[in-house]
Write the structure tokens for this entry.
Amino acid sequence: MLTPNAHYAELKDSYLFFNIAQKIKAYLSSHPGERVLRLGIGDVSLPLCKEVIKALHEAVDDQASKETFHGYMPECGAPFLRETIAAHYLKRGVKLSSDEVFVSSGASDELGDILDLFDRSNQALIIEPAYPAYVDASVIAGRKIVHLPSGEENGFLPGPDEKYEADLIYICSPNNPTGAVFDRERLQAWVDHANKTGAVILFDAAYEAFIEDSSIPHSIFELEGARTCAIEICSLSKTAGFTGTRLGYTVIPKDLVRGGMSLNGMWVRNRTTKTNGVSYIIQKGGAAVFTDEGQRQIKENIAFYKNNARVIMRALDEIGVKYFGGRNAPYIWLKCPGETDSWKFFDRLLNEIRVVGTPGAGFGKCGEGWFRLSSFGSPEDTSLAAERIVALFS
Ligand code: PLP
């Protein structure tokens, strides 16, 4: 008799965004005509940049004639894009061969699929508060999770701890939801730890484009020893507005070997079995992100979101509210003023000033008492929300 994967029953219901939507709906139905200011969103609001749109149009035209048409693409990515991404890393001093870069249709897909490389008995360490997909993908795979709590005392950037040993280590920097970023020294401690214990770090760099301090590493491979212990999962979603277009890439160095097996070689085998590659058109659009003009244009968009972040940070500074993030990340993680229950704080902001954010409790137990505001909204809504927050807490 067929047996379903019983681990699905162990998943906690994801109430977070559902609850938020329900609360907004209830508020609006009892306050018809009112407008709420949404600072909870994790999606981008600006369209794709012109350079990407031009490349997408050209690629569509390529598909219209026999000479330039592309059918199935190579499973691990088109050579033109793999080479372009490797060249982009080289500008930061990271030497990769193009076959260490795997093109994907986004970080979410990879964060789940990559677990195929590891035995189910391997434990996964998740630094909390965390992006919920890490927990859920590990639960579905039947993997034991070691929850490493973080907090104000370590700036939400805990270091390795013998009490929290695991085979896989998720690190997200810049972090969603806390906006905290690992500097070289703190990240090096994790790399050294993984090399010592044989663990593999899954480094989620989805927000690397938001880093503005030159001392902060964009890639884990900027650090000594990372080639033997890390996989980097990247996305063009927030970097270049590809949330709905779908494109990402994953770096697996050839030096990453466990139990005598090359994880790079295993991933080639996995991709050639489980995918038929990412669309030619989308990969052409993605390659345009890495041209000089593409980089200039995406940086303009990121600066737009960063302006929103500054408006929020200024408001919090004015009322003396403690927060993390904002500077090298699109998220601002604030300590709920006068309140330890982040859902109560959510209700207060919604009902008293019509501002929506994301309660920290939705990202793990140690997120309680904290609240995430996002800089992906419109400047008008962001400024108005900031003014209302200042007025409410002054
Ligand atoms: N990783 C983190 C930390 C994220 O916040 C997100 C999306 O919000 C993703 C991965 C998923 O990115 P993608 O759109 O490439 O699937």
Notes: The pocket of pyridoxal-5'-phosphate is lined by residues 42, 106-108, 131, 172, 176, 204, 206, 235, 237, 243, 248 (CB under 6 Å). The chain has two domains: 6-48+294-393, 50-291.
